[in-house]
């Protein structure tokens, strides 16, 4: 399989290099004048040298404000027979179809930053008629950097953005606060950081087990009248933590909707 990446920055290169390493694709041509040599992908400064090639997939991984202009500039020879995948937030399939003049099928992908360590979540949506083989292929590609999920409605991408797209920052913020709390309790910053991050890693490993139940995992640590129970009681007082999380994700959801409508 021959794949073209337009934009090969942190996110694009993490995905593309993983695809090459697993052997899921044969070659990747990447247009990104800012990337240094040393990557597996063949790097190009522009599209001039690629106009005689054909590609099965074209991944657009540039800033959202450049996605439609990039899509519109794709030569017909490069578009022919390809599926276009956009990883940009807020750019709808309707906008992409219009920019491409409906020359090829479009998929929106919403990966999160843990794809950089092959532990990401990627939501996928298309309003095009893709055959089962191509749909399964795209799933395998994004499963190679974590897990992929097909959505039935494009509007659900705004909810995905609020939960998994922005979600890593929520966990990082909680860890940051936990480190600061540890320092206030007398731990060195280095030890507080190690304890907080290793605890986050261990808890995540438990949560992703196939038979895991998050409520059961929490209650297993929460002995009646114990230290954990004392802390949980503070979090749960007037459902303070749950209300804060609901308000935060609603705010992220609204902002994602605004970006999709150009506001």
From TrEMBL:
Pfam families: F420_oxidored, P5CR_dimer. Keywords: Amino-acid biosynthesis, Cytoplasm, NADP, Oxidoreductase, Proline biosynthesis. One of its GO terms (biological process) is L-proline biosynthetic process. GO terms for molecular function: pyrroline-5-carboxylate reductase activity. Transmembrane segments: none annotated. SUPFAM superfamilies: 6-phosphogluconate dehydrogenase C-terminal domain-like, NAD(P)-binding Rossmann-fold domains. Pathway: Amino-acid biosynthesis; L-proline biosynthesis; L-proline from L-glutamate 5-semialdehyde: step 1/1. Its EC number is 1.5.1.2. InterPro entries: 6-PGluconate_DH-like_C_sf, NAD(P)-bd_dom_sf, P5C_Rdtase_cat_N, P5CR_dimer, Pyrroline-COOH_reductase. GO terms for cellular component: cytoplasm. It comes from the Bacteria. Residues 3-90 form the Pyrroline-5-carboxylate reductase catalytic N-terminal domain. It catalyses: L-proline + NADP(+) = (S)-1-pyrroline-5-carboxylate + NADPH + 2 H(+); L-proline + NAD(+) = (S)-1-pyrroline-5-carboxylate + NADH + 2 H(+). It is found in: Cytoplasm. Belongs to the pyrroline-5-carboxylate reductase family. HAMAP family: P5C_reductase (MF_01925). Catalyzes the reduction of 1-pyrroline-5-carboxylate (PCA) to L-proline. This is Pyrroline-5-carboxylate reductase.
């Amino acid at each position: 399989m021959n794949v073209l990446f337009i934009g090969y920055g942190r996110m694009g290169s993490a995905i593309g290099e993983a695809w090459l390493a697993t052997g899921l694709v044969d070659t990747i041509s990447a247009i990104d004048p800012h990337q240094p040599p040393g990557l597996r992908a063949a790097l190009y400064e522009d599209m001039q040298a690629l106009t005689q090639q054909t590609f099965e997939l074209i991944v657009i991984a540039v800033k959202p404000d450049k996605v439609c202009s990039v899509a519109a500039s794709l030569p017909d020879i490069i578009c022919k027979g390809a599926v276009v995948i956009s990883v940009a937030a807020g750019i709808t399939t309707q906008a992409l179809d219009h920019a491409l003049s409906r020359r090829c099928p479009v998929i929106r992908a919403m990966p999160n930053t843990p794809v950089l360590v092959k532990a990401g979540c990627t939501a996928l949506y298309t309003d095009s008629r893709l055959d089962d083989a191509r749909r399964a292929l795209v799933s395998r590609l994004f499963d190679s950097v974590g897990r992929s999920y097909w959505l039935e409605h494009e509007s659900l991408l705004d909810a995905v953005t609020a939960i998994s797209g922005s979600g890593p920052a929520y966990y990082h913020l909680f860890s940051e606060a936990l480190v600061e709390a540890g320092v206030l309790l007398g731990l060195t910053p280095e030890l507080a950081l190690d304890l907080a991050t290793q605890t986050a890693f261990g808890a995540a490993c438990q949560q992703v087990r196939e038979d895991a139940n998050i409520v059961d995992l929490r209650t297993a640590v929460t002995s009646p009248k114990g230290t954990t129970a004392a802390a949980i009681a503070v979090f749960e007082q007037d459902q303070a933590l749950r209300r804060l999380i609901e308000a935060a994700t609603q705010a992220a959801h609204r902002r994602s909707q605004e970006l999709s409508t150009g506001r």
